[in-house]
Amino acid sequence: ANCTSCKDVYFFQNQRCIDYCPFGTYRNYSREKDPCLNCNSSCLACSGPGNTDCTSCKYGQILHMNMCFQPCPDGQYRAYNKTIGPSCGTCHKVCRTCNGGGDSHCLSCY
Prior knowledge:
The model has no long low-confidence stretch (mean pLDDT 87). With 110 residues, the protein is mainly β. The protein has strands at residues 11-13, 16-18, 25-27, 36-38, 45-46, 54-56, 62-64, 67-69, 76-81, 85-90, 95-98, 106-109.
């Protein structure tokens, strides 16, 4: 049956009354009708429309600061630069994997 209005905590989406948005969408509270909108294409699930609103990522990606990234290769670590955004920094020369640039940030060594 097609609904024309919803009661209490339910809201109207695709001619149905629901109480939460489907996976891969978020609720836009400024829209009364069909408030569930698709997440940004970089997110698997989200809390808003942007690429900085991710709550989970597609398989093989990493969630960092509410953004989804491809993992950095061995010899590099996830860094964030306010000017260019996310990037991969280079590990210290003794590190195979690391979480920062110094020799004390090694997770595994050569």
